[in-house]
Amino acid sequence: MLIQLKKFGTTLISRQAGKEALAAFEPVLREATKNEKIEIDFAGVVTFTPSWGDEFLTPLQKRYGKSLLFRNTENLSVQATLQMLEEINKDKFVIKKLKNNE
Amino acid sequence: MSIKLISIGEAAKKMNISIDTLRRWDKSERFVAVRKSGKRFYRESDVDDFLKKADISTSDLFKIAEDWVSSKNPIEPEDIFYCQNSLIFQSRVIKFEKNLSEIPELKNTFPLISAIIGEVGNNSFDHNLGNWTDISGIFFGYDLEKKEVALADRGQGILKTLKRVKPELVSDEQALKVAFTEIISGRAPEARGNGLKFVKKIVIENDIKLLFKTGSARLDLKKGDIGLDIQKENNYTQGCLVLINF
């Protein structure tokens, strides 16, 4: 399952908005089959913070573990936020390197 | 009453900026022109309003924020600075982010600046919701010419909010140090409190300077700093007062 974060906005900064985004997306997540990879696509996101990320990504990481993958994480605020969340949660994220045609 | 329109040349002269800048601002909707027979004109009243606001923003932004947090008779800040709730703050950060993205030397790093502004501002809302001491909401002002941002709140301050998770804290200096250095783990009893560690990381790794005041504590942080320079000050800051230069 592919989740395009830009569909939640391109300036993802507050806890409240991160929490609301996850709650709104729960019905779609329930459609994921067992062992299905959950891919988070950061393409198009301009500003990303640990507050938003902690409300949206941390619960997904706890739920899906290594089945949670990230792509298009080049934006500097995305990179800095992912590093910070890894430090806070003491758990590494899986960043998927894309081939040219993906 | 008729609306007086002036040419782009006259507007540029009055505002002391170039015609090209005005064209660019029109395109990005930062300062919109009126089209007449395909040419750009400006309402004289819009130009005058712009100059009034520019006067405020180019005066000492930090002083305006400081006066507001330290005022004994609190009133809401000027509309251009006042974010009464987090939704207003969010929309202003989006505008700020857009303006920053147009500065060529910040092409890659501007998301880091908007991210720390977002963290500092939302920190004020998250920690003070339902607990504002008098005026709810925050001060958020920026001057892109001087490359500075001022943020302030008249909330509880770092010590009082951190005491809820670390009751052993006794001073503003101690609390400010914890806020900027310790990962508050376990997420109990509340899921927040790590935003300022993120701010620190971004500041010390980039060409950014931060001044953070809360209660009697003051922190100065810049690129390359290893320890934290936290000082005790005689003047007391209610809530938080922050200046960011980039």
Main sheet: strands, sense, barrel of chain B: 5 strands, antiparallel
CATH topology of the largest domain in chain B: Heat Shock Protein 90
How many individual β-strands of chain B? 8
Strand content of chain B: 15-25%
Query: How many H/I helices of chain B?
Result: 9
Extract low-pLDDT stretches of chain B: none
Structural class by sheet pairing and helices of chain A: alpha/beta
Shape label of chain B: elongated
The helix content of chain A is 40-55%
Give the SSE order of chain B as H and E letters.
Answer: EHHEEHHEHHEEHHHEE
Give the helix level of chain B as a range of percent.
40-55%
Count of all domains of chain A: 1
Model regions low in confidence, pLDDT < 50 over at least 5 residues of chain A: none
Rg calc of chain A: 13 Å
Number of domain units of chain B: 2
Shape descriptor of chain A: globular
Q: Summarize the main sheet of chain A.
A: 4 strands, parallel
The chain pair with the largest interface is: A-B, 24 and 28 residues
Overview of this protein structure:
The complex is a heterodimer of chains A (102) and B (246). With 102 residues, chain A is an alpha/beta fold. Chain A has one domain (2-95). Chain A has helices at residues 15-29, 50-64, 76-89, and strands at 2-4, 11-12, 38-41, 47-48, 68-71, 94-95. In chain A, the strands form 2 sheets. Chain A has a 4-stranded parallel sheet with strand order 1-3-5-6. In chain A, strands 2-4 form a two-stranded parallel ribbon. The longest helix of chain A is centred in the N-terminal third of the chain and has 15 residues, at 15-29. The two termini of chain A are 15 Å apart. Chain B has 246 residues and is α+β, with helices and mostly antiparallel strands. Chain B contains 9 helices and 8 strands. Chain B has helices spanning 8-15, 19-27, 44-58, 61-70, 86-101, 110-128, 157-163, 172-181, 195-205, and strands at 5-7, 34-36, 39-43, 82-83, 138-143, 148-153, 209-221, 229-245. Chain B has a 5-stranded antiparallel sheet, sandwiched between helices. A 3-stranded antiparallel sheet of chain B has the order 1-3-2. In chain B, β5 and β6 (148-153) form a beta hairpin. In chain B, α7 (157-163) crosses α8 (172-181). The relative contact order of chain B is 0.12. Chain A binds chain B through residues 11, 13-17, 46-51, 54-55, 75-78, 80-81, 83-84, 87-88, and chain B through 86, 90, 93-94, 97, 101, 108-109, 111-112, 114-115, 118-119, 122-123, 125-126, 183, 185, 191-192, 194-195, 197-198, 201-202.
